[in-house]
Each structure stands twice: as C-alpha cells, then as structure tokens.
Write a structure and sequence with these properties.
The chain has eleven helices and no strands.
Length: 232
Amino acid sequence: MNAKLRVTISGAMLCALLVVGCRNTSTARVDQNVRAAADIHKAELLKELDKKWENPPVHFELGQLYHAAGDYSKAEYYYNQALNFNPAYREVQAAMVKLQLDKGDRTRADWVANGYMTQLASIPEQLLSLGVAFEKCGLDDYALKCYQEALKTSPDSSTVNRQLGYYYLAKNKKDLAKEYFIRSFQLNPDQPDVAGELGRLGVAVRIPDAPTPAPAPSQNMKQPTKPASQPK
C-alpha cells in the first residue's frame, strides 16, 4: 500500500476510534465499521512485520491502533518493539508516556518521562525533539519540562529560546513569548520568522542586511610581475 495513503487511512481510523464509546447507540453500526476497518489495517501491518520484523514505524502504527482501541497491553508491547529497534524514536516515547496516563498511572508516566529526559540531559537538540513530540500528544507539561531542561543546558541557544517563544505563543501567553523571542533574536538576528513574530507582538526589530559580496577581480587588472632572478 502506498505509504502516504496508508498514513492517511490510519490517521482517519485513529481519530474515529478515539471517539468510539462517546456516542449513543444509534451510531453503533458506524462504530462497528470503524473497528472492522481498523482490524483490516492491523492485519495488513502484521503482514508487513512478517516480511520484516525490524520495522519501527510499523510497530509504532500498530501500537497506536491498539492504544486508540483501548487495548493497552498490546499497545505497550508494540511501542516497546519500536523502541527496541529505534531507541531515539521520540514520537514513540511520547506515546508511551501518554499510554501510562491513559491507563491512569500518573506516577509511572512521570517516571517514564523523567527517564527519557535524563538520557538526553546534555543534548538540548534532542530534548527539544522530545518536547515537540510531547506537544503533538497534547502533553504540554512534559513538553515544557523538556524545553526548560534544554534551556538549563544551553541558556545561550537561540533555538531553545525560540522554541520556548513558540510554546508560550501557542498558549497565548504573549508576554512570555515576547521575552523568549527577544532573547532568541539577540542571540541570532538572522531569524526572519522570529522577527515576524516580534513584529506581530509589537516589538520593532531590524534584520541585519546581507553582507555585500567582494567585487570579482577585473580581467584588465595588471598582474604582478614575477621578480627577475638574481644573477648567480
């Protein structure tokens, strides 16, 4: 199956499964159809794993389907398989934390999340990646903790300050967003997107002009003559 089409179909089924159980009985047939489609897709993914077991994205996708259906033990199994083959799969790590929360185990969710963050304590770029994955799962508290840990490790990083600016902007906390955007721009003025956000927040900034390239040597420029050799 075409990968892009598969992702689209899977995404639609996941969205539908997440709301199963929130409707009245008049939609039971629709729910059954959604579940049937999900079962067909699971079978397709399992066939892919029969061909190649070491396939982290397929394990992750299966985990998501079981997660959405409320089969948490199978979801955790496939999430773990994905992480066994790709320990740096940030989206799976975020999904694993969300799974613990959906199971009602906040203590374990905190423990799992802190474990991932500890592994990345000295790598701000990876902390940012994990934070973005948490945000995609709607786990904003964990995302913010990642960004704050990255800032402790690298306070003079324009990228980290920029990410915090966008985080607070998404939460409509414009004063905090402005503070981090200003800091990011001070550290690296060559950021048109940050300059644009600051402008919309009422802060006037000036993007530095691009350096003027040095003129090319003229074809008619007289070349230096080679000094005559000294008589022996």
